[in-house]
Amino acid sequence: MFELKKIPKKYQPKGFEILYEDRDIFVGNKAPGFLTVGAAWDRVNTIHYALNQYVRKGSAKSRKCVYVVHRLDQATSGILIFAKTEQVQLFLKDDWKSTIKTYYAIVHGKMARKSGTISSFLVEDEEYMMHSVEDNSGGKLSHTEYDVVKETEKFSLLKINLLTGRKNQIRVHLADEGHPVVGDDKYGREDRRFNFLALHSQSIEFTHPFKRERMKFEAKAPDYFRKLIDYAY
Prior knowledge:
14% helix, 11 strands, alpha+beta, 11-stranded mixed sheet, Pseudouridine synthase, 4 helices
């Protein structure tokens, strides 16, 4: 674990708590509800846009920018890395297979298997929904490793090692198992009691592009996780 960067709250980019910054990278905790990058319906209220404004320090003429390394779903909270140069971005992407990504997910019900790996080929349809298919015709093989760390009568807390990083992968795989993520009305069940998605990118471990040292960072989960299952997130 590296020392977290203490930046006064008033200087933090909206929706993104910077945990670490150096000449090459940003590492931070994305708040739920924020897009990582621009979409057709919103190109401004994104973490990428906020960080660009942060590095430009209010200068309209500045050409400084940050580079996207990976993404989180809008409703998902947690760790994100951004690069400060295109060279750093390419290094981190090329080295992505060695990056360890850990998530917490709270799902409906109790898993029959308390640990395991969910695997399927994932494809995206014309409505931008991801689906598991039985063969590799147009699909990409995806693996989600999980362990149940705590259960209640209604919910289970899973710690997930994301072995591949397909769009909506965790959500689709857990829904396929019959245990959708709480609050997931896209792949799970609509329930107005939950106006959040109980999926959090808890930690990331990667090789620094310049120092070539392994670095690991953790992000605090939103308070609604503890309201569902009391645990030391």
